[in-house]
Design goal:
Blueprint: H1 3-11, H2 15-32, H3 34-45, H4 55-62
Helix pairs in contact: 2-3
Length: about 60
């Protein structure tokens, strides 16, 4: 299957299925890229509230 076909199939997924696919791809990227893994861990561990994003803001930004 070509990348174009994969993109087309992904565009037709239900919202929950897209989220699952995104999580799977991020997991793959994280496991295969130490630099990405370190950056993601740094963001998760950041204790500075000025760098945080409110859950409501994320939901608005990424809602269907």
């Amino acid at each position: 299957m070509s990348l174009a076909q994969l993109k087309d199939q992904a565009a037709h997924l239900q919202s929950a299925e897209r989220r699952e696919l995104i999580a799977f791809l991020v997991s793959l990227q994280t496991n295969q890229n130490a630099e990405f893994q370190d950056e993601l861990a740094r963001k998760i561990d950041d204790k500075n509230p000025a760098h945080w994003v409110e859950l409501d803001d994320l939901q608005k930004r990424y809602s269907d």
